[in-house]
Amino acid sequence: MRLRLALVQFARGEEKEENLEHMLDLLSTLSGAGLVCLPENWVGREVLEEEEWKKVLGLLGEAAREGRFSLLTGGTYLRRGEEILSSCYALNEQGKVVGRSDKLFPSQSTGERSFLSRGREFGPFTLGGVKLGVVVCVDALYPEPCRTLSARGAQLLLNPSNIPENRVGTWRHVGVARAVENGVFFAFVNNTRSCYPDGRRVVGHSFLVSPTGELLAEAGEEETILEHEVDLSALKEVRLRWPFLRDTGRFWRRAGFPSSWRGG
Q1: Could you say which DSSP state residue 48 is in?
Q2: Is 170 exposed, middle or buried, given 0-12, 13-18 or 19+ CB atoms closer than 10 A?
Q3: Of the N and C termini of the chain, which has fewer Cβ atoms inside 10 Å?
Q4: CATH number reported for the structural domain that contains residue 158 in this entry
Q5: CA dist 193 to 9, 43, 217, 243, Å?
Q6: Is the four-CA dihedral 9, 15, 110, 104 of positive or negative sign?
């Protein structure tokens, strides 16, 4: 099975209304994409209230329906009752929500833990016949979520992020490791041409890695939609040759870890 993947490397501005309008313009240019993934906090760093998010989600759903693609909304700070979570929603080709994946480990270094709750929804879920998992930003640095999603059948891991220039090299190494150790494709989706509050630049370099560790595609610093056709049929051969995922499951069973650690 082949999947046309589109990673939206977004030049985020300061105003959330302008960011939303610009993102919708970019999505309207897509043709032939099967799955589209947006970066983390592309709307902005503000916390969106429930009614605000419903409006954004409705407009994104309309874009997915008109473009005939599935869509991952990236990660957005959302108020849910008494909590604030960072969540990525999965929309099918009809623009309907079919799942949600939360950031499990808010960033200590950026101060997220002072206001952001740990997520609960995790996945994986199926879009367009493809089983996939989402790890929002720093969650990719924890091997356990990626391994659990892969053990539960994920073929593709997507990492919507907002990573500064001085960390992109680290993310490239992590992406290769997560792809190889789990026998999956791994996609990193970053913003660009924006800055952290402390002045560090965010400069893109979104990328896609194969389950053999090959860097299949990488963007530069420009705003772009990085598209690549993913051959999911390659997973079977790779996992037969490199049985890392299967071997780890056996290790967990022998070591007596609970089934929740090993995907059931």
Answers
A1: B
A2: exposed
A3: C
A4: 3.60.110.10
A5: 10, 14, 20, 40
A6: negative
**How many domains does the chain divide into?**
1
Report residues of the chain scoring pLDDT below 70: 257-264
Q: Is 196 exposed, middle or buried (0-12, 13-18, 19+ CB in 10 A)?
A: middle
Q: How far is CA 16 from CA 12, 42, 56, in A?
A: 9, 8, 10
- Asked whether the beta carbons of 210 and 178 are under 8 A apart, the reply is no
The terminus-to-terminus CA distance of the chain in angstroms comes to 26
Name residues whose C-beta falls within 8 Å of residue 39's C-beta, 6 or more positions apart in sequence: 8, 9, 10, 74, 75, 160, 161, 162, 189, 190, 191, 206
Can you give the length of the chain in residues? 264
pLDDT in tens, 64-78: 999 999 999 999 999
Residue type, 245: L
Separation between Cα atoms, residue 148 and residue 232, nearest integer Å: 19
Residue 50 burial (C-beta neighbours within 10 Å; 0-12, 13-18, 19+)? exposed
User: How confident is the model at residue 251, as a pLDDT?
Assistant: 75
Measured in degrees and rounded to the nearest 5, phi and psi for residue 10 equal: -110, 135
Residue closest to 205 by CA, chosen among 197, 141, 184, 215? 215
Domain that holds residue 45: 2-261
How much is the pTM?
A: 0.94
